[in-house]
């Protein structure tokens, strides 16, 4: 639909060559139509985990802010939302206001990958002027939330390492992500197989780069030293199993 819109309504077929923009725009279309319905029921204890967020918080890929009412805004000093899809920003700003964040919400037009996030954080002023090369300076965020987003970030291993670097020592990461089916342990072979089949049939292409077969739990574990690593599977036997929980970066 997005491709047809670009050709027949925008009459600007050259936009089809800008693949990243095309990807964000088509995902934004999908999310604008379905995001709210897809947020009514969230997996596992994520609502409770979000309600405890406090201090300076970074939310990766907030979309149009459907989950913002689940935070307790009185505990939050400032929240940065790193959302690369420009068409979702008006909704994000509207929902941040509606959820009572006022000036405490700072939307950033960037992705969670260091090469996009770090310059945006510098521009916003929360990172100092040194270290613009890619890796963040340590210790600026009390909490980082990744809710239904790490399936779509580029080079997830490095991106997650970058996010770890941005957490203050003792800081908390809240995770709610769908992952590769753990068929050798808690999962199911048929579900793992269906992930493979869906992927071959174009899941990632049709869902804006979302990957079904990511081992996000392993990337998180290997990102750095954690003093607490509490992730639970929700729907481990399903084709779209989630890991939900909280991790705490080891104190200095
Ligand atoms: C499934 S939606 C989830 C939105 C929100 N976190 C929620 O759970 O309601 C995924 C979001 O991640 C965004 N996204 C895609 N690629 C991203 C990236 N590289 N970095 C950060 N966010 C990204 C999408 O634009 C979209 O808003």
From TrEMBL:
SUPFAM superfamilies registered for this protein in UniProt: S-adenosyl-L-methionine-dependent methyltransferases
Domain of life of the native organism: Eukaryota
InterPro entries noted in UniProt: SAM-dependent_MTases_sf, Thiol_S-MT
Gene3D superfamilies according to UniProt: Vaccinia Virus protein VP39
Pfam families: Methyltransf_23 (PF13489)
Descriptive protein name: S-adenosyl-L-methionine-dependent methyltransferase
Organism from which the protein derives: Amniculicola lignicola CBS 123094
Species classification: Eukaryota, Fungi, Dikarya, Ascomycota, Pezizomycotina
